[in-house]
């Protein structure tokens, strides 16, 4: 009886010892996402919504993990492209089609995994805006997070600010569905 009790207690302690502790990084390092974003402010007057494709890398911090990473803060890199569809506007019987706007970015930043099933991230870096045959470099900042749906997929809400030298800041928010591998 003592042996069975000792075995049961040892098994329970071993099984529960991982709860609430940081451990070896067990997540995935690569993340690809596809989503939709909505302009806010002045940009919403000329553009309706955008579609985007993103790739992110971080050292074993994506996907559903068995334990939180040992380091509370990790580095992440994100690159992607978003395309915003232009609106039509009619003024004095003259119709004008705003051109589409393509936004290419390369961000670096930090991320935190508060739980084994999600992350928060803050990234920033250079952006390139392309519209109607024009282009301009600028700077962007992205604040986002994720909640895992299953081991390799999650939902990623985000808020982005883009700034070019000759324009007002562009604000967008949206959500992506992402796959970690």
Short note summarizing the structure:
With 181 residues, the chain is mostly beta strands. It contains two helices and twelve strands.
Quick tags:
181 residues; mainly beta; Porin; two-stranded parallel sheet; 2 helices; elongated
Task: Please explain how this structure is put together.
This protein is 10% helix and 67% strand. It is mostly beta strands. It has a single domain, classed as Porin. The strands form three sheets. Strands 2-3-5-8-9-10-11-12 form an eight-stranded antiparallel β-barrel. A two-stranded parallel sheet has the order 1-4. The radius of gyration is 22 Å and the shape is elongated. The termini are far apart. 29% of the residues are buried. About 8% of the residues have low confidence.
Mean pLDDT: 87
> DSSP strand (E) fraction?
over 45%
Tell me about the biggest sheet? 8 strands, antiparallel, barrel
Structural class of the secondary structure composition?
mainly beta
Q: Segments where pLDDT lies below 50 for 5+ residues?
A: 10-23
Note the run of SSEs as H and E: HEEHEEEEEEEEEE
How does the SSE layout of this entry go?
Blueprint lengths: L1 H15 L5 E2 L4 E13 L2 H4 E16 L5 E2 L3 E14 L1 E4 L2 E4 L3 E15 L2 E14 L2 E15 L4 E12 L5 E11 L1
Parallel strand pairs: 1-4
Antiparallel strand pairs: 2-3, 2-12, 3-5, 5-8, 6-7, 8-9, 9-10, 10-11, 11-12
